[in-house]
């Protein structure tokens, strides 16, 4: 039987010599078995192998254990106190279930249980991979250093593969289930596979300076919506983000600089954890109505060709009288009537998802009046990078009205001010 964990062997005689007893635990492989070549009646030993001593140190088990300390076994910690030599074998960072099974086998061996009934292993030197500390970080910054013939360590939590001329994401990367940070900046990636959403622990995704033209809606509906906090899509060729983008509700930092964006996500206000947003040097003519709901620490919209707002020149798409479809859609949203693809055609569900909100709080679908008004960006962000070289911190924001009455009330307030 074998167990991988961290081990510290402490001599109980050191204090009598005036020496300190505590050191540092190290990665180790524990084995319970008999040395090779011993007769069938030979004793059972506990062998501790480390990277420094792969041959291992052996300790007799039968009638040689003074005490087991298992108070924190559920946390993967335990201590085996031996009589001879007088040492404590302290185990930590073990799988709790495997640790319990291993300690149970050691206890049976100590009690003299028949060797045939014990799950013993051959006491042979450990492989290097068995005692090395799992690799959690790998940084690759050139095509020459990119691994082509061997897999990435499955223990990786941070992988950077920049300047490697990658045209697509390596399928081997998509198998790294512990990955928390993935940096694929400065490559030639044109498309993201939907399976990147299977990286359930991914918190940071950096795709700066690639050839992306879109961001898949499937990714926004994947497990990334529960984990992703940092997303860098800057310096690509993205023109628009999908409707589902705002399902990434855990986003804290979003970078969209130097793309070809003609609009920001319609429901961007749903990103209630978002604190840092940069979308400089795009092609944004105005900001979506939902932008007012954001609460940011830092905002950068420099270098966008924002239009000059004119509330007195509305875009009227109001149909009077309202169609039956418009009335039904407004009622569904206003009264929060449940709906779904099992009740309505999918295209109607999509239309309801992007229903506009009038200044009065009512919904409107395809019948509305649209204008742009000026908003000081300090209303949504503590720190604002200047919008232009003239020192401005204002930008045009879309406003919708569900009726002529709502629009006329707005005009009265606007003209009076």
TrEMBL record:
Pathway: Protein modification; protein ubiquitination. Pfam families: LRR_1 (PF00560), LRR_8 (PF13855), PH_LRR1 (PF25344). GO terms for cellular component: cytoplasm; nucleus. The keyword rRNA processing does not apply. Keywords: Leucine-rich repeat, Nucleus, Repeat, Ubl conjugation pathway. Transmembrane segments: none annotated. Residues 1-120 form the PIF1/LRR1 pleckstrin homology domain. It is found in: Nucleus. Gene3D superfamilies: Ribonuclease Inhibitor. Its main location: nucleus. The keyword Nucleus applies. It comes from the Eukaryota. Substrate recognition subunit of an ECS (Elongin BC-CUL2/5-SOCS-box protein) E3 ubiquitin-protein ligase complex which mediates the ubiquitination and subsequent proteasomal degradation of target proteins. ECS(LRR1) ubiquitinates MCM7 and promotes CMG replisome disassembly by VCP and chromatin extraction during S-phase. May negatively regulate the 4-1BB-mediated signaling cascades which result in the activation of NK-kappaB and JNK1. PANTHER family: LEUCINE-RICH REPEAT PROTEIN 1, PTHR48051. Component of the probable ECS(LRR1) E3 ubiquitin-protein ligase complex which contains CUL2, RBX1, Elongin BC complex and LRR1. Interacts with CUL2, RBX1, ELOB and ELOC. This is Leucine-rich repeat protein 1. It comes from Caloenas nicobarica.
């Amino acid at each position: 039987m074998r167990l991988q964990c961290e081990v510290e062997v402490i001599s109980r005689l050191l204090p009598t010599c005036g020496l300190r007893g505590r050191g540092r635990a190290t990665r180790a492989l524990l084995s319970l078995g008999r040395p090779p070549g011993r007769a069938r009646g030979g004793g059972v030993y506990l062998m501790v192998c480390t990277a420094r001593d792969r041959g291992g140190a052996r300790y007799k088990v039968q009638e040689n254990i003074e005490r087991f300390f298992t108070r924190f076994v559920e946390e993967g910690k335990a201590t085996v106190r031996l009589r001879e030599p007088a040492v404590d074998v302290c185990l930590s960072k073990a799988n709790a279930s495997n640790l319990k099974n291993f300690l149970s086998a050691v206890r049976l061996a100590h009690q003299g249980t028949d060797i045939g009934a014990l799950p013993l292993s051959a006491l042979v030197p450990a492989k290097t991979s068995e005692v090395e500390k799992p690799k959690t970080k790998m940084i690759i910054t050139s095509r020459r250093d990119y691994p082509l013939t061997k897999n990435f360590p499955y223990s990786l939590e941070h992988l950077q593969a920049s300047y490697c001329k990658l045209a697509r994401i390596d399928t081997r990367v998509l198998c790294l289930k512990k990955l928390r940070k993935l940096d694929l900046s400065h490559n030639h990636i044109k498309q993201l596979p939907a399976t990147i959403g299977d990286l359930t622990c991914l918190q940071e995704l950096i795709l700066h300076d690639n050839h992306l033209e879109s961001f898949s809606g499937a990714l926004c509906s994947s497990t990334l919506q529960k984990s992703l906090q940092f997303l860098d899509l800057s310096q690509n060729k993205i023109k628009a983000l999908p409707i589902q983008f705002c399902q990434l509700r855990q986003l804290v930092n979003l970078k969209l600089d130097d793309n070809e964006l003609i609009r920001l996500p319609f429901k961007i206000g749903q990103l209630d954890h978002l604190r840092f947003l940069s979308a400089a040097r795009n092609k944004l003519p105005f900001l979506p109505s939902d932008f007012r709901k954001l609460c940011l620490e830092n905002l950068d919209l420099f270098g966008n060709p924002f239009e000059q707002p004119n509330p007195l020149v509305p875009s009227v798409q109001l149909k009077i009288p309202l169609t039956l479809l418009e009335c039904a859609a407004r009622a569904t949203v206003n009264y929060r009537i449940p709906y779904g693809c099992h009740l309505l055609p999918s295209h109607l569900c999509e239309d309801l998802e992007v229903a506009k909100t009038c200044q009065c709080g009512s919904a409107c679908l395809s019948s509305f009046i649209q204008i742009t008004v000026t908003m000081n960006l300090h209303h949504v962000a503590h720190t604002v990078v200047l919008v232009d070289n003239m020192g401005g911190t204002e930008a045009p924001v879309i406003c919708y009205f569900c009726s002529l009455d709502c629009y006329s009330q707005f005009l009265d307030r606007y003209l009076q001010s």
